[in-house]
Amino acid sequence: MGRVEMVEDNATENTETGSSAYVPSLQLTKGQPSPFAANGGLSYMSFDHNGDAGTAAAMKAALTQISSGEGQAVLDMLDRAPVGPIETKWGTGFRTYEECLEYIKANDIKAPEGGLALPLHYTINEQPSYSIVTSNALWRDPSREAEAQVLRKDEEDNMRRCLYFPQVMRDARRIEEYYPGLSPNSPECMDRLGV
């Protein structure tokens, strides 16, 4: 089932169940890759059941993903990597901000006028991440303690699945210098560049 079909099917389902959850339509930016998100970017609100805003579906997806072991495989890879830079498909990553900053200085990475060269923290796990709000009944339900522990550990592990990467940020106010005629305040800028 495609994403558009899924949206239409869920809209019908919500009408039939009497759900009052507002589900924004899925909108994609022309020319940009598909979202790096669960359900192809479709809101979990689309899976609302009895007013839970899709929380049950999100928890089920989170537990299924955790049990697949992919997140743990990323942690194992990082734990086995030698001290120092870690080569990834996105470039050279570092465990700490300081290591990455030293790399930027040692390699004389410069930013254009108005820009910055700095370490930025990114996940290297190509799976969605989940976070259960502290007000959720799960955390107070003794019969779900095992689920709570698994979800809590995975949320903590999400930070361990991140590395710092050297990035050069340009001043968006100068975007017309790089793309003549393109204003950072225009919808065309979002359509063309995603910013």
TrEMBL record:
Protein name: Uncharacterized protein
